[in-house]
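hey so u asked for the seq, here:
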Amino acid sequence: MTRLPKDVNRYRYLAKYYDQVFGFAASWSEPARRAIVEPLLPEVASACDLCCGTGTTAVALARRGIRTFAVDLSPGMCRAAREKAVEVRVLRSDMRTFRLPGRVDLVTCEFDALNHVPEEEDLAAVARSVARALRPGGHFYFDLNNSPAFRRLWPGTWFVDTPGVAMVMHGGYDRERDRAWSAVEWFICEGSLWRRRTEKVREVCWTAAEVRTTLREAGFDRIRAWDAERFFRRTDPAIRPGFRTFYLARKC
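ran it, structure tokens below
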């Protein structure tokens, strides 16, 4: 049985309003995807977008003629992905234990989803599940936030105001444990009233050494990494060298 973390339903409002509030950022990772993933696609017949969110990347893959699966644990995210990605098979499952009907050529896991796994054993479980889902020679593509980003970007407050929904995000960083958190406050217009709702999002920093060791032990080789700053220069100048890393690993 899939193991459900206690806070799985805390993404209820994040899922419902994600595209409305964060839609502007969806294209920020496209330069990295074009540079790193695009060269692989001529050989990709099947793929899985792990932690698919509202299904944006899954749709892009499916529109390339790729048989695509989308996996997420949040019921709200799966619902949004199904509404958007009619040509994609959406599966609700834990990234640590998910299984696909068959092996695929590519697994993507974008937007720092791996920073959300809470313990080192969970990171290893994700790597093993991805390796099981891939055919030999298949690739795993993902990105991670790093400690400098946690230290510099997370503490503080920022907000987004859209019609009918406003969001205020308060962030913090635990230097000793190398973990970050964000308290997300939603102000939602319901008829003539505005309702306030709160969710909490946590992230853990994984070092490059931890990532590479975990991948090798799970059966990956040819692990490559790119600093995200080169891809974000025009879209998000707040991303400095060392803040974020894109990875591509090959299944042995």
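The CA atoms of residues 117 and 123 lie 6 Å apart. The two ends are 28 Å apart (CA to CA).
lmk if thats what u needed
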